[in-house]
Amino acid sequence: MAIDTVCKMTVDENSAQHTSEYKGKTYYFCAPGCKKAFDENPDKFVTELTSEQQ
């Protein structure tokens, strides 16, 4: 399972309908709104995810 970087919900990579590629990594989203928010400012969400993992 992946984590939606916008809303933090778990997403099944095998059935996810909303994905984005960013800097060589695939990100999975629960809904089109989360994908849109990520696509508009991916650095914000990637930075937040990195900060949370530390």
Shape: globular
Strand content: 25-35%
N- to C-terminal distance? 20 Å
Order of helices and strands: EEEEHH
Mean pLDDT: 90
> Helix segment count?
2
Helical residue percent?
25-40%
CA-based gyration radius: 10 Å
Low-confidence stretches: none
Count of folded domains:
1
The largest β sheet comes out as: 2 strands, antiparallel
Detailed description of the structure:
The chain has 54 residues and is an alpha+beta fold. The protein has one domain. The protein has 2 helices and 4 strands; from the N terminus they run ββββαα. The chain has helices at residues 32-40, 42-53, and strands at residues 2-3, 10-11, 18-22, 25-29. The chain has a two-stranded antiparallel ribbon. Helix 1 crosses helix 2. The longest helix has 12 residues, at 42-53. The chain is globular, with a radius of gyration of 10 Å. The two termini are 20 Å apart. The mean pLDDT is 90.
